[in-house]
Each structure stands twice: as structure tokens, then as C-alpha cells.
Design a protein that fits this description.
Length: 244
């Protein structure tokens, strides 16, 4: 692989070790001299327990590769969507590096269970929710979420420790049906107006972009999309119920 300074120049944090680090085959020191060194098991000297932007992107790309391969084929349209997605959220230069990484990852076998376990043990819950949101967005690249992709994302969610209610909420943002807005807010269709308001406040707090502020402005921008979906769901239900 080439040297991807934008994403890993700031360090990989906990992602430098374990299965994610092994997949990328880098140690943090290789960023300095441009060499590529296989990561050993355990925690290398560059290990940090915090989630860095670089480590988060590495985790995302590994899971994206797994999801893209879930339906047995990788389409140019999917790669184009990922590039567009990355450009919109992280800028052109960063997107170019990310797509190069992704092309390499698509050639590898992804140990999904081990990767998800590493993420669950090291990444906070809000950041994991944002990962799930990214995965559904990319799975919908061709206009719909393939069932094999959906099942894999559901497996990933469970293995990352995402609650079923949160999974259903994020899935409803991309797989629309008659009760999608209610699922987004994690309430039943027969919930009272007061329960609706309480649910909205709870979800707005859960998905507020500030929850991933430690990952940088790029990720706050992406998280804002999810926050807006919560707001739209609330407004749709209010309109349906004639609530001022």
C-alpha cells in the first residue's frame, strides 16, 4: 500500500493493533519513513487507547469493504458512490486516499467478527452508531439496500453491541416503510403526543453531532445528516397528527 498521510498521519490509536491493524499492515512509525511493516499481535509501541480520526476511518473502510462484497459483486457505481460520499464529508484529497485504501481492502478477506469485537471494546457508543449510519448510506448506493448487505449490517450492529432499537431506528432512515418515522424515533405508532415529544428529545440528544466532536469536524458534518433525519421524522409525525 501507499502512504496515506491524511488518515493515519495523526495516528491510529487503538486501531494500530489487533485485526484492524493487521489488515492494513502498518505500524505508526511507517508513516514517517514510508516503509510498510507487518503489525504483530498485541499492542505495538504506537498504541493509544483513544479513538483517533485515522483509526475511525480505518474501521469504517474495513467494514465498508465487507458490506460491498456481501452481495457477491463490487460495482463501479458503488465505488463511485463511496468516493462521492467521502468527497462530500471529508474533501477530495481525503476521498482519493480512502478509495485507494478501499480497493486494496476489497482484495482481502475481512474477519468481520474479530473487527467488530475490536471496535466494540474500544469505540464509544455514539461513534459506533455513526459507523452504522455510514454503512447503511453506502449500502444504498444503487438506490436500494440489498438483503444480503442488510443482513450483514445487522450482524455487524449486533457484534458491535448496538441495541436493536437503535439498529431499527437507523435502518428506517434508509429502508423506508409506512412506520419508518416512528422507528427512527424508536416509538410505537400508537404512542401518545407526550411520548412523541419525549422520544424526540431523547433521540435528538443521542444523535447530536457534538457526540462525535472528538473525531473532528469531518465526522460532525456527517453526523449532522443523521440528526436532521431525526428532526424530519419528528416533523412528519407532527404534521400527520396536526400537532402545532
Amino acid at each position: 500500500m501507499a502512504k496515506f498521510g491524511k488518515w493515519i498521519g495523526g495516528g491510529l490509536g487503538w486501531a494500530v493493533g489487533g485485526p484492524i491493524g493487521a489488515i492494513f499492515g502498518f505500524v505508526v512509525g511507517s508513516i514517517v519513513d514510508g516503509s510498510t511493516t507487518e503489525i504483530q499481535t498485541g499492542r505495538p509501541s504506537g498504541y493509544s487507547g483513544r479513538t483517533t480520526t485515522g483509526g475511525y476511518v480505518m474501521s469504517l473502510l474495513v467494514l465498508v469493504a465487507a458490506v460491498m462484497k456481501a452481495d457477491g459483486k463490487v460495482l463501479k457505481s458503488e465505488l463511485d458512490y463511496v468516493k462521492k460520499f467521502m468527497v462530500q464529508n471529508f474533501g477530495a484529497a481525503s476521498a482519493q486516499e480512502a478509495v485507494k485504501m478501499l480497493r486494496d481492502l476489497l482484495k482481502q478477506s475481512i474477519p468481520v467478527n474479530a473487527v467488530c469485537t475490536q471496535i466494540k471494546q474500544n469505540m464509544n457508543y455514539s461513534a459506533r452508531l455513526q459507523l452504522l449510519h455510514f454503512l447503511f448510506g453506502i449500502a444504498q448506493a444503487d438506490g436500494h439496500v440489498d438483503e444480503n448487505e442488510r443482513k450483514l449490517i445487522e450482524t455487524i450492529a449486533r457484534q458491535m453491541g448496538i441495541g436493536n432499537g437503535d439498529f431499527e431506528s437507523i435502518q428506517a432512515m434508509f429502508v423506508r416503510n409506512i412506520d419508518a418515522d416512528y422507528k427512527i424515533l424508536e416509538i410505537a405508532q400508537n404512542a401518545s403526543n407526550e411520548e412523541l415529544k419525549k422520544a424526540y428529545r431523547r433521540m435528538a440528544m443521542k444523535y447530536h453531532p457534538d457526540k462525535v466532536s472528538h473525531l473532528g469536524n469531518d465526522f460532525q458534518k456527517a453526523a449532522n445528516e443523521k440528526f436532521q433525519m431525526v428532526n424530519r421524522a419528528y416533523e412528519n409525525i407532527k404534521k400527520e397528527r396536526n400537532i402545532a
